[in-house]
Amino acid sequence: MTKSKRALLKILLMTPKPLVWRFARTYIAGDTLDDAARTIRELNGEGVCATVDVLGEWVKNEGEVQFFVDQYGKTIDRIVTDRLDANVSIKPTAMGLAIAPDLAFRSISAVLERAQKHGLFVRLDMEDSPYTQATLDLYFRLREAGFEKVGVVLQAYLRRTLDDAAKLADAGASVRLCKGIYVEPRALAYQQFDTVRAAFVAAMEILMKGKGYTAVATHDEWLVFRGQALARALELPGDRFEFQMLLGVDPALRRIIVGQGYKMRVYVPYGNGWFGYSIRRLLENPKFATHVVKNVLGMGPASGAAAKA
Ligand SMILES: Cc1cc2nc3c(=O)[nH]c(=O)nc-3n(C[C@H](O)[C@H](O)[C@H](O)COP(=O)(O)OP(=O)(O)OC[C@H]3O[C@@H](n4cnc5c(N)ncnc54)[C@H](O)[C@@H]3O)c2cc1C
Questions:
Q1: Cα–Cα distance measured from residue 296 to residue 249, given in angstroms and rounded to the nearest whole number
Q2: What is the CA(148)–ligand 1 centre distance, in A?
Q3: What per-residue confidence (pLDDT) applies to 305?
Q4: Catalytic annotation present for 176
Q5: What residue owns the CA closest to ligand 1's atom 47?
Q6: Where are the chain's structural domains?
Q7: 4, 5, 39, 255: least surrounded by Cβ within 10 Å?
């Protein structure tokens, strides 16, 4: 993370929550499952499928873990009863990974059992580096336990990712590839934009040449192009890859990709635990973040136009 982003992070963490919410709501379906269902229906109407995230992470007690297990159960039931074209994404630390790997295994298994009954797919999101190996271990343990409709995420910025990609490609895994969003030290993660892009392309090639399914998660049009060109060169059938984007980020690019006939899935977060997620999104969008900071510093009213941009 650059020095300016670190400074921005400090300011955002001091920003009053209502002000952050004013800008952050672009990225979030809303507080409730009804909000998520409405957003998914709209996306489905545009020929886009979804993956639903119940907002929350780094849970520190078992009671809270049970809340997430229940909420994911309700989310799966709603996807089924409303016949939505969607699956779910889970943050392992919301399922207890920060407490104990066994707890995370049990709680994710409970969600997977519910999902499996309906043939629904579940993806484990990838969090910051203290959880990388633990998340991959969880993924392989779930596969060994017989769960098939489960996938994982790799972050191109991590130096270890090409090795992980090779293992997952060989295991026929469904992998979402993204750049990575957390603040990581140079010893573990590439810090330069061009290096991360190059690492993304290299990992994408390993995954697409492997036996599994590749979800190319990016709003970087250069990488979208590289993904399309690679899939074409490999003659990869449409049921072996998809593109993914976040709710609220570059809908114009999303429409272009859908218009080209590619499968597109949008990440739809909902729930009360929106603050940490929103701060990460705001850090990625200097335009929004600048408006927040200007307001915090009393340098002018928040611009509604910027919030809609
Ligand atoms: C579906 C999906 C799932 C993800 N899951 C994970 C995960 O499990 N673990 C993880 O670490 N990371 C995850 N990420 C986040 C990812 O790692 C990146 O941080 C994020 O996608 C930005 O990188 P980029 O590839 O879009 O490229 P960038 O170069 O960051 O962005 C490309 C373009 O998109 C614009 N853009 C990017 N973000 C925003 C924004 N918030 N608001 C407005 N414009 C924006 C940029 O301004 C730029 O023009 C996920 C991303 C997606 C799309």
A1: 24
A2: 27
A3: 29
A4: yes
A5: 285
A6: 1-28+286-309, 34-273
A7: 4
Give the rounded distance of the alpha carbon of 57 from its chain centre: 13
Show Cβ contacts of residue 156 under 8 Å, excluding neighbours closer than 6 positions.
Answer: 177, 178, 179, 180, 196, 197, 199, 200, 203
Q: Which CATH architecture has domain 34-273?
A: Alpha-Beta Barrel (3.20)
Rounded to 10 degrees, the C-alpha dihedral 46/51/53/58 comes to -140
The stretches of the chain forming alpha helices (DSSP H) are: 3-14, 17-24, 33-45, 62-81, 101-117, 132-144, 161-170, 193-209, 221-233, 251-259, 275-284, 286-296, 304-308
Q: Find the residues whose C-beta lies inside 6 A of ligand 1.
A: 125-126, 153, 155, 176, 178-182, 217-220, 244-246, 249-250, 267, 281, 284-285
Q: What is the pLDDT of residues 39-49, one digit of tens each?
A: 999 999 999 99
Q: What average pLDDT score do residues 5-19 get? A: 78
Per-residue pLDDT, 294: 65
The model carries a pTM of 0.91
